[in-house]
Write a structure and sequence with these properties.
By secondary structure, this protein is of the alpha/beta class. The protein is built from 7 helices and 8 strands; from the N terminus they run H-E-E-H-H-E-H-H-E-E-H-E-E-H-E. The chain has one domain: Rossmann fold, CATH 3.40.50. The strands form 2 sheets. Strands 1, 2, 3, 4, 7 and 8 form a 6-stranded parallel sheet that branches. It has a two-stranded antiparallel ribbon with strand order 5-6. Strand 7, helix 7 and strand 8 form a beta-alpha-beta unit. Helix 3 crosses helix 5.
């Protein structure tokens, strides 16, 4: 973090850092095709160098306080949803990986967004029961097979509209696998929201 003063008109990010973040206008690159089970996708930023460094610090350098700087981007994106959301939940992390990292970065964002929007936070509704290798560097096909059977839903989701939160959308395979098990549990619609989108 640069520790520069935060401007009132930027979302808890100093003006210098804010200008280096690439806001995604959804036209270039165009929005991705949605995988089966995902009813909508929202992301405020593109995964370019400044965003990459910011998210890397947030995930791997114990900079969990960055959630407060990143959350306003999601709040602004949430305003674009034209559906009522019954529950917000994070893409879960396996307990072994969470023990290594000490926290789930997506959980902090989901919790913050749920609190700000006064929506139920499904803290333990979706779990990761199988330890999987990191998705980074895998092909789209291997990403999909890597996640098969990894997630479990622990409560009835009948009729609920769910908003799933994660940090990065690459191929959408993680969100698709989560959406599949949520809809098997009765969810009506599953929307995906991430901090950033990786240009294919």
């Amino acid at each position: 973090m640069c520790l520069s003063p935060v401007q009132a008109d930027t979302p808890k990010v100093c003006l210098g850092c804010f200008k280096r973040l690439e806001i995604w206008d959804k036209t270039f690159p165009p929005e991705p095709s949605l995988p089966d089970g995902v009813d909508g996708f929202f992301a405020p930023l593109l995964y370019e160098e400044s965003v990459r460094r910011l998210i890397h610090q947030y995930k791997y350098s114990d900079k969990r306080m960055l959630a407060h700087a990143l959350l306003p981007f999601l709040v602004k994106e949430f305003a674009k949803l034209d559906e009522d959301i019954d529950m917000v939940m994070a893409v879960p992390m396996h307990k072994k990986r969470q023990w290594w990292r000490q926290y789930n970065q997506s959980f902090l964002l989901a919790e913050g967004l749920a609190d700000m929007q006064n929506i139920l936070h499904g803290r333990d509704s979706l779990t990761r029961g199988r330890f999987t290798r990191p998705q980074r560097g895998l092909s789209a096909k291997k990403r999909k097979s890597n996640l098969k059977g990894a997630f479990n839903v622990l409560e009835d989701m009948s009729g609920k509209n769910i908003l799933l939160i994660d940090d990065v959308w690459t191929t959408g395979s993680t969100m698709a696998e989560c959406a599949k098990v949520l809809k098997k549990a009765g969810a009506s619609k599953v929307f995906a929201m991430t901090l950033c989108y990786v240009e294919p």
